[in-house]
Amino acid sequence: MLQVAWLGLNVFLFVHAFLSFEKATKYYYTRQILGSALAWARASARCLNFNSMLILLPVCRNLLSFLRGTCSTVVYVIFTSIAGLTGVIITVALVLMVTSAMEFIRRSYFEVFWYTHHIFIIYFIGLGIHGLGGIVWGQTEESMFENHPHKCAEFFDKWDDPASYCKPPQFEGLPAESWKWILAPGILYIFERILRFYRSQQVVITKVVMHPSKVLELQMHKHGFSMEVGQYIFVNCPSISSLERHPFTLTSAPEEDFFSIHIRAVGDWTENLIRTFEQQYSPVPRIQVDGPFGTVSEDVFQYEVAVLVGAGIGVTPFASILKSIWYKFQHTDHNLKTQKIYFYWICREMGAFAWFNDLLASLEQEMEELGKVGFLNYRLFLTGWDSNFAGHAALNFDKANDILTGLKQKTFFGRPMWDNEFSTIATTHPK
After folding, report:
1. Are 40 and 62 in contact (CB under 8 A)?
2. Is there a contact between 89 and 126 (Cβ–Cβ < 8 Å)?
3. Cβ contacts of 35 within 8 Å, gap of 6 or more
């Protein structure tokens, strides 16, 4: 729905601006010089202003239209005018930000993505002053009385005749508009940055756990910190980078007296952080945390049946949900409507299951003690395996606990057959 609304607003602004410059009488003479390029350029600029207000990165096409004068070449306009210079600057800034946002660069070279996107400051400054040069001219209101295009356009050869009622038209540059679009959100963003700086306090690291598959668990405490399930925080380690802040989903429950995150080595920053914590004889690095942010996931507790699906380290928000459920059962929370949870976790490596085993084992034991063995139905799927290991697992399938995880629920090999899974759930829980 939001995408449809966004697209509709863009179409409305484009058509409105296009018709205004294509039909407005005050731009009659300007259109005689520039043709339809005037309407196309100003309509595109209107959409650009709108999207910049929303801090979205528009597609790098039809971004700028450099208007030619009778005695000016394109190169002259670009490099000798405010509109030309700022147009080049914001175009280059957009190209750098868009190209560095590609998934390959964002995942493998996050630092390039992070630092390049701070060029947005240059982009917005350039956008704000882009129109100050008044490169697009329109006829002045006073001149419209002395030389109305509908009356005087056909008599341009008599404009200089003192006896003619048509005087030579006078023009003025179009006032800058971009700054009006970005001023309010820009002020809000400045206050946002100030708030982030104020909230980014140093935390006390209470526990460090190194799990298999290069997964680091940090348990921390911060004064005044309050969280809900499904939220995330931004983490900064000044000893690695004073500017970089990386988002991590909270894996702890709101009922716990600490908050925790699980960090997997997927880039230079995370690898350096894990390597720093692995050095036993070095002091614990200083960590700053900003947050929590994001919408909470407590709605899962408002349904009788919930289906949770996670892949790899993406299981972290469900760790918070399952922990919170465990605490709600311990404290007999009567507001908990959930009667059944189906949990699917797909992993590529065997070691990835290790850090989550303790939580699942605790939930198994808790459900048994409360007589709710069927409350949690979890299925673990291993996608990275060889035939030898699968054969070994098949030979030990009749054992009470799974040979891979030690849990009562057996590990499945391959990916879930979702049609079958959803059909089974729908049959078990009819409307």
Report:
1. yes
2. yes
3. none
Residues 6+ apart with CB under 8 A from 352: 212, 213, 215, 312, 313
Phi–psi pair at 352, nearest 5 degrees = -65, -25
Using CA atoms, how far residue 30 sits from 25, 133, 212, in Å, is 10, 16, 69
Rounded Cα gap, residues 175 and 93, in angstroms:
24
Q: What is the pTM of this model?
A: 0.58
Q: Any idea which architecture 299-349+372-381+401-426 has in CATH? A: 3-Layer(aba) Sandwich (3.40)
Place of tokens 């306009």: 77
What is 200-293's CATH number, 3.90.550.10, 3.40.50.970, 2.40.30.10, 1.10.8.80?
2.40.30.10
Does residue 342 carry a pLDDT above 60?
yes
Q: Which residue has the tokens 């945390």?
A: 289
> 246: which 2 tokens?
């990386």
| Domain extents in the chain | 2-136+174-192, 200-293, 299-349+372-381+401-426
Arithmetic mean of pLDDT, 38-47? 82
Residue 319: phi and psi, rounded to 5, are: -60, -40
Place of tokens 């690095």: 285
Structure tokens at 216: 């680091």
Instruction: State the Cα–Cα distance between residues 288 and 339, nearest whole angstrom.
Output: 38
Q: Is the pLDDT of residue 64 over 50?
A: no
Phi-psi domain of 411 (left: phi exceeds 0; alpha: psi -120 through 50; beta: other): beta
pLDDT given for residue 58 in this prediction: 45
Helix (H) or strand (E) holding 231: none
List CB contacts of 335: < 8 A, sequence separation 6 or more.
301
More confident residue, 403 or 344: 344
